[in-house]
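haha ok so turns out i had the wrong file open the whole time. this is the CORRECT one, sorry everyone. sequence first:
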Amino acid sequence: MTAQSATTTIRDARAGDIPRLLELYLQLSESSQHPEDDIRPLTEEHGAALKRMTADPNTRLFVLADGGRVVGTYAFYVLPNLSHAGRPFAIVENVVVDGTLRGTGLGRLLMEHADMLAREAGCYKIGLTSNNKRAPAHAFYESLGFDQSHKGFTMYLEEHADSG
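then structure:
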């Protein structure tokens, strides 16, 4: 699926996008509880993860390209559900626009795309989490109509494995 504006295209991620995605994820990490020091090295696991995402009809990884350069991304998941008359719900994760382009409407374009897909899938809601340190992102999501309706919790399994 592709969505376009005058200069941008939203498309499914491809293996060749992974190095740029890792750069964007580093930017996302900078305002997280556990910021990374550098871009993670490209591994076979990255390619395998993208193949698993591509193979799952309820999972999509999108990139936003501007003039051919990847400048944003988000992951989209549709999950089956028994509540709400059995309607599924969507989760949006790892939303990031290149820091030099934030505030230009590209994030809004990504989230409008996610909204469209969730509605097409018959979802009753879209959920997302955003790190407590990301106040500008919170204001952005609220401007799109998201409510801070729940308190989220995270347990980083890597930390627990290291401490044992």
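Residues 160-164 have pLDDT under 50 and may be disordered.
again sry for the mixup
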